[in-house]
C-alpha cells in the first residue's frame, strides 16, 4: 500500500480500491547503518532489501572476521547461529553499554519468587516515574534474592496502565534514559544461548567493545570500522541495531499523519479516526507493551469487536 486518502481510497502500485474501514498491522522497519548501505557484505539477521539474510549465509572462510553492531536479541541469535555453523573466525560485537539480554528464569525460580512481589500499585503512576524507580531500588536493597527481572515481571499486567497514565515528562525520561536497561531485563534469552556466548568470550572468539561506531569505510574488500576506543578491520558487518521508530522511515504512516488520519505520538503514531485501526506493534506509543503474542491477540480481538459493532 502506497497511500490512503481521506475517503479510504487505497492506492497500491497497480490498483486503487475503496474501503469502509482500515486495519494497519504492518511491522517495524530495522534501523539502517549509515554506511555502505548496499554492500553485499552488510548482513542483516532480519529481512532487508539492502542485504542478504544472515541465515542464508554459509560460506564463511576460516579466517573471516565479523563485526556485529548491537548486542540485543538479534545479536544473540546471530552468535548462536555462527556457533551452529562452526564459524571459527574472530567476532566483534559493538554496543555503547556492551550488555547482552538477561537470561530467562528457570521454572522453579518463576514458581517460588513471582507471586509474592507487589511493589507497585496503579496509584503509583500519580507520583511519577522517579517514585517507581525509588520503590524498585528500595525493594532490591532489602531483598537480595531478587533482581530487576522479578520486579519487571511483577508489573507485567500493569505496564500498559502505567505507561498510558504517565505524564509526558515521565514518558520522555523513560525513553531517553531507561529504555536500554528495560530491554536488557525485560526481553530475555535462554541460558543455553548465553552459555554459548560466554564460551566464545572465554575462548577469545568473541570480543565485546563498549563504544559507539564513528564510521564504517570499505578498503580493499575489507570494512574499516572506527569506534571511539579502537579501529577494526573485518570481512563482514552484521546489522543488529533493532527497530527504527523514526516516522520518516514509514512513508504510509507519515502520509496519513499529514492528512490527519493518524496522529504522531512520542514513539510512532496513533489512530485519529474511528474507522482506522492500528493492531499490534504499531501501538507501541499508546500501550508500550504490545509486541508479545498475548498482547497482540488481545489488541486484535478488541479491534475485531469494534469493527463488528460498527
Account of the protein in words:
With 310 residues, this protein is α/β, with parallel strands linked by helices. 35% of the residues lie in helices and 21% in strands. The protein contains ten helices and 18 strands. It has helices spanning 73-84, 107-113, 128-142, 148-154, 159-165, 168-186, 191-202, 251-258, 284-287, 293-309, and strands at 3-4, 9-11, 16-18, 22-24, 29-30, 42-44, 52-53, 65-69, 90-95, 206-210, 213-219, 222-227, 231-234, 236-239, 243-244, 262-264, 269-271, 276-278. Strands 7-6-14-8-9-10 form a six-stranded parallel beta sheet. Helix 1 (73-84) packs across helix 7. The chain is globular. 22% of the residues are buried.
Give me the secondary-structure topology.
Blueprint: E1 3-4, E2 9-11, E3 16-18, E4 22-24, E5 29-30, E6 42-44, E7 52-53, E8 65-69, H1 73-84, E9 90-95, H2 107-113, H3 128-142, H4 148-154, H5 159-165, H6 168-186, H7 191-202, E10 206-210, E11 213-219, E12 222-227, E13 231-234, E14 236-239, E15 243-244, H8 251-258, E16 262-264, E17 269-271, E18 276-278, H9 284-287, H10 293-309
Parallel strand pairs: 4-18, 6-7, 6-14, 8-9, 8-14, 9-10
Antiparallel strand pairs: 1-2, 2-3, 5-15, 11-12, 12-13, 16-17
Helix pairs in contact: 1-7
Amino acid at each position: 500500500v502506497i497511500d490512503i486518502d481521506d475517503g479510504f481510497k487505497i492506492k497500491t502500485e497497480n490498483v486503487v480500491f475503496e474501503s469502509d474501514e482500515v486495519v494497519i498491522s504492518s511491522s517495524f522497519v530495522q534501523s539502517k547503518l549509515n554506511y555502505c548501505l548496499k554492500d553485499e557484505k552488510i548482513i542483516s539477521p532480519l529481512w532487508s532489501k539492502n542485504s542478504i539474510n544472515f541465515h542464508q549465509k554459509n560460506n564463511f572462510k576460516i579466517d573471516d572476521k565479523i563485526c556485529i553492531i548491537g548486542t540485543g536479541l538479534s545479536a544473540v541469535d546471530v552468535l548462536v547461529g555462527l556457533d551452529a555453523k562452526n564459524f571459527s573466525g574472530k567476532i566483534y560485537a559493538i554496543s555503547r553499554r556492551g550488555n547482552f539480554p538477561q537470561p530467562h528464569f528457570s521454572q522453579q525460580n518463576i514458581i517460588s519468587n513471582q507471586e509474592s512481589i507487589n511493589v507497585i500499585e496503579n496509584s503509583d503512576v500519580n507520583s511519577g516515574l522517579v517514585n517507581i524507580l525509588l520503590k524498585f531500588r528500595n525493594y532490591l536493597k532489602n531483598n537480595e534474592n531478587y533482581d530487576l527481572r522479578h520486579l519487571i515481571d511483577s508489573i507485567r499486567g500493569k505496564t500498559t496502565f502505567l505507561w498510558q497514565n504517565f505524564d509526558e515528562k515521565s514518558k520522555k525520561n523513560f525513553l531517553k534514559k531507561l529504555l536500554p536497561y528495560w530491554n536488557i531485563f525485560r526481553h530475555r534469552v535462554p541460558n543455553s544461548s548465553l552459555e554459548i556466548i560466554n564460551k566464545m568470550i572465554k575462548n577469545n572468539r568473541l570480543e565485546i567493545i563498549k563504544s559507539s561506531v564513528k564510521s564504517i569505510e570499505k578498503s580493499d574488500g575489507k570494512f574499516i570500522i572506527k569506534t571511539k576506543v579502537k579501529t577494526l578491520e573485518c570481512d563482514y558487518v552484521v546489522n543488529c541495531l533493532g527497530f527504527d521508530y523514526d516516522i520518516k522511515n514509514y512513508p504510509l504512516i507519515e502520509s496519513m499523519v499529514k492528512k490527519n488520519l493518524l496522529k504522531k505520538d512520542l514513539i510512532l503514531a496513533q489512530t485519529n479516526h474511528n474507522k482506522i485501526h492500528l493492531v499490534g506493534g504499531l501501538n507501541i506509543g499508546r500501550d508500550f507493551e504490545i509486541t508479545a503474542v498475548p498482547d497482540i491477540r488481545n489488541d486484535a480481538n478488541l479491534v475485531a469487536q469494534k469493527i463488528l459493532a460498527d
